[in-house]
Design goal:
D-Maltodextrin-Binding Protein, domain 2, single chain, 14 helices, 342 residues, ten-stranded mixed beta sheet, alpha/beta, 48% helix
């Protein structure tokens, strides 16, 4: 009798233990993958929700504000390094990824998505990889500057900066814009140009979207922004045109999205699945066909791309090597912080 009771006791205990373990495992599976996303939610969220539907992996997506964009997330991830909250970071540029890599925040992963991206748009060790690129462009109001050309705009911007708008350069792609100038012009020339254009009345906006709105509405005749902001204005029926912004040697500035896995993620396999999904040809085509018109960096079927994107692919052939900016990004950022952070 006692032996039967003992057997029943251990059987019940085993069932309870198994049930508890199963419950804990299910809770772990249901624990969402936390994604920090600096890309515009209107373009990023449909892609992330599609991944969620296909895989059954729940996502907790945290978007940033237009004003602070990637800079805010980079600082946050560094602060959270000892107690990480995020699993994956979808950035809207690459300088922040370089900073996070140096800070030891990222882990490496070179999966099938990484393999299809050209070497110039990814970290050689696999800490991050780029995809779906934008370009820095000059947006103009076609009703006010209907006969503008690249050459005329270059002269006009030099002679009448009060007609132009630029986002605050401490954040996002405008910070990358300034870092490129720091590299190719040199610090002294950039600092002189910055001070002189502001003194002459150049309009400094909170973000690229505001630059687009100022030009589309006619408050400014032209401005520096990103190609996806131009296409947003065009889709809204605004009278706008765009030209690639080029450095003095004619090089364009291509700005990929980028993705990385955070060190000490609790969901490594799921994070790797998401990274491969974002770096896939399918995602790049989806970004290209969206109103953002972002340019694929890996190989995709050309017939699936809008004409505007195929045209911008030509700009990729003569774009700067973003890795060259790594050596000067900290110097430029420190100067910008001294300018803008109280």
């Amino acid at each position: 009798m006692f032996g039967n009771r003992k057997s029943i006791f251990f059987t019940v205990l085993a069932v309870v233990a198994t049930t508890t373990a199963t419950t804990l495992w299910l809770n772990h599976v249901r624990d969402p993958l936390v994604v920090y996303c600096a890309h515009d939610s209107v373009y990023a969220e449909p892609i992330l929700r599609d991944f969620e539907r296909r895989t059954g992996i729940p996502l907790d997506i945290r978007f940033d504000t237009e004003a602070t964009k990637s800079f805010g997330f980079v600082e946050r991830l560094i602060q959270e390094q000892k107690h990480p909250r995020a699993d994956v970071f979808w950035n809207n540029e690459v300088l922040g990824m370089m900073q996070l890599q140096v800070a030891g925040v990222l882990t490496t992963y070179r999966g099938p998505g990484y393999d299809r991206i050209p070497a110039q748009f990814k970290d050689a060790e696999g800490a991050w990889a780029g995809f779906g690129a934008r370009f820095r462009v000059v947006i103009v109001n076609s009703e006010l500057l209907g006969h503008a050309t690249e050459e005329r705009l270059s002269v006009l911007m030099a002679e009448a900066p009060q007609l132009a708008a630029c986002a605050k350069p401490l954040y996002g792609t405008t910070r990358l814009h300034y870092t490129a100038l720091w590299k190719y012009w040199g610090p002294a020339e950039l600092q002189r140009w910055h001070d002189e254009t502001r003194a002459a009345g150049l309009v400094e906006a909170a973000g690229n979207a505001m630059v687009k709105d100022l030009v589309a509405g006619g408050s400014c005749r032209m401005g520096w922004t990103d190609s996806d902001d131009f296409f947003s204005a065009q889709a809204a029926g605004s009278p706008v045109k765009m030209f690639p912004w080029r450095l003095s040697d004619g090089q364009t500035v291509c700005i990929p999205n980028s993705v990385a896995i955070l060190k000490n993620t609790r969901h490594l396999a799921a994070s790797q699945q998401l990274v491969d999904f974002l770096l896939s040809a399918e995602t790049e085509v989806q970004l290209a066909r969206s109103n953002a018109r972002q340019v694929p960096l890996g190989k995709v079927p050309l017939e699936e791309l809008p004409a505007e994107v195929r045209q911008m692919q030509l700009w990729v052939e003569n774009t700067i090597d973003l890795a060259q900016l790594d050596s000067v990004r900290t110097e430029c950022l420190n100067w910008l912080k001294a300018k803008y952070v109280p």
